[in-house]
Write a structure and sequence with these properties.
The complex is a heterodimer of chains A (919) and B (466). Chain A has 919 residues and is of the alpha+beta class. Chain A contains 31 helices and 22 strands. In chain A, α3 packs across α6, α14 packs antiparallel against α18 and α27 crosses α30. The longest helix of chain A has 32 residues. The radius of gyration of chain B is 23 Å and the shape is globular. In chain B, strands 2, 6, 8, 9, 10, 11, 14, 15 and 18 form a nine-stranded mixed β-sheet that branches. Chain B has a three-stranded antiparallel β-sheet with strand order 3-12-13, with no helix packed on it. Chain B has a two-stranded antiparallel sheet with strand order 1-7. The chains are: A alpha+beta (919), B alpha/beta (466). At the A-B interface, α2, α16, α25, α26 and α29 of A face α1, α2, α8, α9 and β20 of B.
Chain lengths: 919, 466
């Protein structure tokens, strides 16, 4: 039986997972292709400069391989024959030179120099019915020809075994990654401490510094010096509190001679309430925290009652340095650790219950499995919902073992906290849902821990739902992942780049850190005490942390990603810290803690710290998204840092920023109005915003900026302000002239009238003007006047509709007056008429009057009159002015005080890179 | 050039799993002349941009582009086959209140409520065999927009922005317009989900007429342009001094540039959204109302390089005619038909249609049988149709689509797609192919695996291509 044939058969039958697997394989392909293009380009430039013929020849062969062969193999073969895809159908791998020569069940895939005898070429020719590869379709003639040429010329193949497949990888060929002993992957072995190991050249106290120094030395990179004190205090404030230090704090720290000044600063910041707020917000990213359930059918309430209790619990836990193992236990099983909420720990269960509300309970279970496993363990267990995990030792049974735990938990009707879960009275195991489909039940799986992390002979969970046991199995030093994952998160927060590049995926494919001892030593140490503050303290006291972030050329070339930790990383302020810092320097920050969430997207800056912002996951305001806030719909491994013009637009133009700029300038402004000392104002602003005095150049440029005359913006016209309402005399002799315009002063029931009581006294009587009409005054010489005043030189085109409804009386006379002329006049009696368009050229300040008079009798004189004016400025911009849309009662015009120069300068300093980046 | 592209992509692939590491990449992107996407094309692109005319609420296929003579025959009688189960109880067959006409050389029919659109039938490919998963608005909207009914996934506009980027870095790459509020499911319809925030649509309420109300913070009422220019000049100076003390850091330059970009955007974006700049004749061609305004803005946006423009018929679910279908559908169609016809005319006139894919359709269609009256909703009425996900119609025009043809067919009554069935996933796969992507290879690594718009589904409709 030909193995290749059976392969073809398998591949051609409909395999439910083929597509998904394809996607993954494709990713590799993309990755590889990218690398290759870069390599081949650099190679060809080498070739140009090369003098050695042999080298040139090899380069040419490499180029041929990289251009024609490798992409082909990756595209068409790797899916079923490579270590990366985890597939080796027919025991054949095609991802290294050795594997090709060794071949699979049918022998070598090729014989260099002998294309006709090479199996590879036979199968791609598609001549033999049972020997056709790739199964999806024949390669193009050109591709086949390339393969032929390549084999003929010796099958040059630079590919070696993938780095992390050790010698016994070949032995494993043909077996699944599920059979691989998890302990052969670094992250599944318990971290160990490295204290006491001798490190040559170690001159530091913390072993992690020694390991980093050694690694840098090996690579011939000089580690950076300790940053200066000003940089360090700013860095520490940013990392530990998210706020900037004040000028005086910076000065004091820079000037102190105490040897332990740095330690003292660290300790005081760790003790400050801001530390808890800062770290809690990082944790809320992990916990996909939001204050709303998402979409709710039929306009139901979306706010999650008591959501903020979880946020506040998190802040308290970090502030009080609750041990991390305890934090985990509360978050998963506080119904058992604090059942009556005596210590307020029930709120911790928001970690599980604050996810999006899904219609399908299976999706809620999935959301909770995901937040637990990616969030706490760095494992992507959700991938195993429909099939065994593609790369990691997570069979689909594991997913449903956890699923059974979640499904056996429920929210009680009258619990001590709205966020809590309790065990169902009759917990049940869950069946595997084959391909994740509800109707497709497989074997029932006992509620238990993940296979890869189970101890030998470990039994199933038996205590209620099993949540408590699950919590215990996660929150233990014996779990190789828990401490590592958390240490990596904390490291990333403080140092700015992760040790493990995928902070929520520590699976088989994840490489160990460049200096594994750093992570392991920190993690093993952390697992002995679980104190976040101790961990933070240890990291920020390390030499690694305190290094300057300036790059030297060697380091940048040899280690552009700074994996060897030989320098600091410059950081950009995240959304919260940017916003909080702006509030702080404008003296707007309200330091109160906790409580209901606050909407922060209004026109005025809400003074609370950003951690207290209302997070509406359904319609997360664009402000959050623009500044790369974590997606609150699922656990977030880390923030993006994009640079888009919408960020700049907010910072340049938003009403919030205007208010912040104004407030910032207030403190720098002299109290008394004497001749202003611009230099001292500039200096004062710099110290306030940037925590330092300006340089000579900056001072001069800023003073010049302040001295420059400011041009006030042309205010936007509020179209409501263009209309006034009243009554006036229409001179009987010369009806073109309107005299005595009495503005109506009273606005009641949506209409303007002459007095507070209606009808008012003679001559106005029933006169009023409303949105779409009115009533004439009883004095026949008098008319109601709806007056439009031109805000600029413009051409107005008027068209409208007049109407008189009553069958009694003698109707109403309508006329439009402008520039001393009557533009339009008609009498309507139980009739209506459209009028216009009339074109009128107005200068700023000139008016158009829409006049209605009673005719000879003064009863039954209600009328309707609507008109649209199209205004075209001399520059050609046109705008609508509508009698109805822009009708309004008294209103307070929006205050738009322009920013003066000092305020503009404050804004600039807040917009500066110095403000946004932390060295 | 190629190298440049690949490096960007490699950086991206290297860092996207990490999330954090992505620092430099997106900043680098902002440096480029336009705003390139993150995934190189995998096929020659026939379309470079998409205008999606979303008929939210579910227009009835048998009253628009899929005429069924059998409805006359069975009108008022029990359908010859058992009614398929939809959201609500349904009854006898209900004929279309409208007359159909054949148009153009192709003779493709359109009903009397789509005469302006009908005039373009030779450019339109009608897909009559669409089907979705369930007869409810929420999941169906999600499916049409994100390829997934229940879970939170990026919308197709986000995917396309991620892949292609924007051809105009002064404008967002993905714009969604809806007059008077949100459709149901609100901004989830254009969410970026796990893709970076910049791939979410910029949402615009087109009931607002003033440009400054259309785009957040596009205008500053308190600082004049002249003063703002001087502010930015000083900012440049301070930032340069700051940078001069540090080694080369692309992120610093990128952020500095972003302010200049925003400054230019203030006028560019205002111009793009200001339809008053169109000649009167053009504005008249599109007609009155908010949809007309949207359609004209859409044309102005795509000609400026915006990749994906989505136009909702209106807030809520305007096409959802559970009763009084005759007047309701006629009314809604009246609000969109002229503008759609004008948009196609306009795109064709400017030559943009060749490279612009226009997609028309709802989240599902409606039943050919009448919906039974129900207390509290359509009480006392027997003149509407229920939701129908078994068979409905979408159409495409431009962007490499062969017009004047109908693809697939529903059954005798128009209840269920029976020939050449096209699932929503297939529609997505086809759209991506027109844009130059293999839907299986436009992927994003997140939470340990690669995601794509079509999940594990999708089959390209080969017959659709020119």
């Amino acid at each position: 039986m030909s193995v290749l044939r059976s392969m073809a058969q398998i591949a051609s039958t409909v395999h439910p997972h083929v597509s998904r697997r394809m996607t993954v394989a494709t990713e590799y392909k993309l990755l590889l292709c990218c690398f290759l293009s870069v390599i081949s380009v650099s190679l060809s430039s080498d070739t140009l400069s090369g003098e050695n013929l042999a080298a040139t020849e090899e380069a040419a062969k490499t180029a041929f391989f990289e251009t024609h062969i490798r992409p082909l193999l990756v595209d068409h073969c790797y899916e079923c024959h490579s270590r990366e895809s985890g597939e080796s159908d027919g025991n054949l791998l095609l991802d290294s030179a050795a594997s090709l020569l060794k071949g699979g069940d049918r022998g070598p895939a090729l014989i260099p120099g002998k294309p006709q005898q090479s199996l590879l070429l036979r199968v791609v020719h598609y001549r033999e019915k049972d020997l056709q590869m790739p199964p999806k379709g024949k390669l193009s003639d050109r591709q086949i020809e390339s393969l032929r040429q390549w084999i003929e010329s010796g099958a040059f193949d630079p590919r070696t075994e993938p780095a992390n497949s050790s010698g016994d990888a070949e032995k494993k060929t043909g077996t699944s990654h599920l059979d691989r002993d998890p302990r052969t992957h670094w992250a599944f072995t318990p971290p160990v401490r490295h204290v006491g190991e001798s490190v040559p050249g170690a001159d530091t106290e913390d072993p992690i510094d020694a390991f980093a120094a050694l690694a840098a030395k090996k690579t011939d990179i000089a580690s950076n010096q300790r940053a200066d004190r000003v940089t360090l205090i700013k860095r520490l404030y940013f990392d530990l509190t998210g706020l900037p230090p004040s000028h005086s704090e910076i000065e004091a720290f820079a000037a102190t001679t105490r040897r332990d000044a740095y330690q003292r600063l660290v300790d005081s910041l760790l003790a400050s309430p801001f530390f808890g707020e800062r770290f809690a917000r990082h944790w809320l990213d992990v916990a996909r925290y939001a204050d709303t359930v998402g979409y709710a059918l039929g306009g139901k309430e979306r706010r999650i009652s008591g959501s903020h209790h979880y946020r506040d619990w998190t802040i308290r836990a970090f502030s009080e340095d609750m041990p991390y193992d305890e934090m985990i236990q509360h978050q998963l099983a506080a119904d058992r650790t604090d059942p009556d909420n005596e210590h307020g720990n029930l709120e911790a269960m928001g970690f599980l219950t604050l996810g999006r509300q899904f219609l399908n309970p299976l999706d809620t279970i999935d959301d909770r499995i995901d937040v637990i496993t990616r969030g706490l363990l760095g494992l992507t267990v959700s991938c195993a919902r429909c099939h065994d995990h593609k790369f990691d030792p997570i069979p689909t049974e594991d997913y449903y073992a956890l699923g059974g735990i979640i499904a056996s938990s429920q929210r009680p009707k009258n619990g001590a906290s709205p966020l809590m879960l309790v065990d169902k009275p009759n917990p049940v195991d869950s069946p595997v849902l084959i391909r994740g489909q509800p109707g497709n039940r497989g074997a029932v799986v006992p509620r238990r821990f993940l296979t890869a992390l189970q101890a030998d002979g470990e039994s199933r969970f038996t205590d209620g739902s099993g949540r408590k046991e699950l919590a215990q199995r996660i929150a233990t030093a014996e779990n190789p992942l828990t401490a590592r994952v958390m240490v990596n998160r904390v490291w990333t927060i403080l140092v700015g780049r992760p040790l493990v590049n995928s902070p929520s995926d520590f699976g088989f494919r994840t490489e160990k850190p460049a200096i594994p001892e750093v992570l392991d030593d920190l993690a093993a140490d952390f697992a002995t005490h679980w104190s976040i503050k101790k961990l933070v303290r240890r990291i920020v006291l390390s030499k690694i942390y305190q290094q300057s972030s300036s790059g030297n050329d060697t380091a940048l070339t040899k280690d552009p990603e700074n994996r060897l930790l030989a320098r600091g990383n410059r950081r950009r302020r995240d959304f919260e810290s940017l916003r909080d810092a702006m509030l702080a320097v404008s003296n707007n920050l309200d330091f109160s803690q906790g409580g209901e969430p606050v909407v922060i997207t209004g026109n005025k800056p809400a003074p609370r710290r950003t951690v207290y912002a209302m997070i509406d996951r359904q319609n997360l305001p664009s402000l959050f998204r623009t500044f790369d806030f974590a997606n609150p719909d699922a656990h977030s491994p880390g923030r993006y840092f994009t640079t888009v013009p919408q960020q700049a637009l907010f910072l340049m133009n938003s009403p919030q920023m205007m208010a912040i700029a104004k407030a910032t300038a207030t403190s720098a402004r002299p109290r008394t109005i004497t001749s202003p000392d611009l230099r001292s104002q500039v200096t004062s602003l710099f110290t306030q915003v940037l925590g330092r005095e300006p340089t000579v150049d900056e001072l001069q440029a800023s003073v010049e900026f302040l001295e420059e005359p400011s041009r006030v913006p042309v205010p936007n016209v509020d179209p409501r302000s263009l209309w006034s309402y009243g009554a006036g005399k229409v001179a009987p002799t010369d009806s073109r002239t309107i005299s005595e315009f009495h503005a109506f002063r009273h606005f009641q029931e949506n209409r303007w009238q002459a007095g507070p009581k209606f009808p008012t006294a003679f001559p106005f009587s029933h006169a009023f003007l409303g949105k779409s009409g009115g009533h004439t005054p009883s004095d026949p010489d008098m008319g109601t006047i709806r007056r439009y005043t031109a805000p600029r030189d413009e051409v107005i085109t008027v068209s409208g509709n007049v109407a008189h409804n009553s069958e009694q009386g003698d109707g109403v006379v309508f006329s439009i007056h402008a520039k001393g002329e009557i533009i339009y006049e008609s009498t309507q009696f139980h009739s209506s008429q459209t009028h216009g368009p009339h074109t009128i050229r107005l200068q700023a300040g000139e008016t158009i009057d829409f006049v209605a008079t009673s005719g000879t009798t003064s009863s039954f004189d209600s009328f309707g009159w609507t008109a649209r004016l199209q205004s075209t400025s001399t520059q050609g911009n046109s705008t609508d002015r509508d009698t109805e849309t822009h009708f309004s009662g008294p209103f307070t015009p929006e205050k738009t005080l322009p920013l003066d120069r000092l305020e503009q300068l404050s804004q600039i300093l807040i917009l500066s890179n110095e403000f946004a980046f932390v060295d | 050039m190629l190298n440049q592209h690949n490096r960007t992509r490699r950086d991206f692939l290297r860092t996207c799993g990490a999330g954090f590491g992505g620092l430099a990449l997106t900043d680098l992107l902002a440096q480029e002349s336009d705003w390139p996407g993150e995934v190189p094309l995998q096929y020659p692109a026939k379309a470079q941009r998409v205008i999606h005319l979303f008929m939210n609420g579910g227009p009835s296929q048998v009253d628009t582009f899929d005429p069924k003579s059998a409805l006359e025959k069975y009108h008022g009688k029990t359908a010859p086959t058992k009614n398929l189960r939809t959201e609500r109880p349904t009854g006898n067959v209900l004929k279309s209140p409208y007359k159909f006409r054949q148009y153009g050389e192709s003779g493709l029919p359109a009903s009397e409520i789509f005469t302006h659109t009908g005039a373009h039938m030779d450019d339109i490919c009608v897909i009559r065999s669409m089907h979705a998963n369930v007869p409810n608005h929420e999941p169906s909207l999600m499916l049409m927009n994100t390829g997934e009914s229940r879970l939170v996934r990026p919308s197709m506009g986000s995917w396309i922005s991620y892949g292609l980027g924007s051809a105009n870095r002064n404008l967002p790459s993905f714009v969604t317009m809806c007059p008077g509020g949100y459709p149901i499911k609100e901004s989830q319809n254009w969410q970026n989900a796990f893709l970076p925030g910049k791939y979410q649509a910029t949402y615009i309420d087109t009931n607002a007429k003033e440009v400054e109300r259309l785009i957040d913070h596009i205008e500053n009422k308190r600082v004049s342009k002249q003063d703002q220019r001087q502010q930015l000049d000083l900012l440049q100076k301070l930032n340069r001094e700051h940078a001069s003390l540090r080694e080369d850091d692309k992120r610093l330059d990128a952020r500095l540039d972003s302010f200049e970009l925003a400054y230019r955007m203030q006028s560019e974006a205002s111009t793009a959204f200001d339809i008053q700049r169109e000649p009167l004749a053009t504005r008249r061609m599109y007609g009155k109302g908010s949809f007309a305004r949207q359609a004209l803005i859409a044309r102005r946006l795509v000609e400026r390089g915006v990749r994906f423009v989505q136009l909702y018929t209106g807030a809520g679910q305007p096409w959802d005619s559970h009763d009084d279908l005759e007047t309701a559908h006629r009314g809604v169609a009246k609000g969109v038909d002229q503008a759609i016809g004008a948009l196609l005319t306009d795109l064709k006139r400017t030559g943009l249609l060749e490279s612009t894919l226009v997609l028309w359709g709802g989240e599902f269609g409606r039943t050919p049988v009448v919906e039974m009256p129900k207390k509290g909703s359509n009480q006392g009425k027997m003149n509407g149709r229920d939701h129908n996900h078994y068979g409905f119609t979408c159409w495409m025009a431009g962007g490499g689509v062969k017009g004047g043809q109908a693809i697939g067919a529903t059954d005798e009554l128009g209840f269920q797609a029976v020939e050449n069935r096209v699932h929503v996933h297939d529609l997505h796969a086809t759209m991506l192919r027109l844009l130059g992507y293999d839907h299986e290879r436009l992927t994003y690594r997140y939470a340990g695996r690669d995601f794509r718009l079509t999940d594990v589904h999708g089959k390209v409709i080969e017959d659709i291509f020119t």
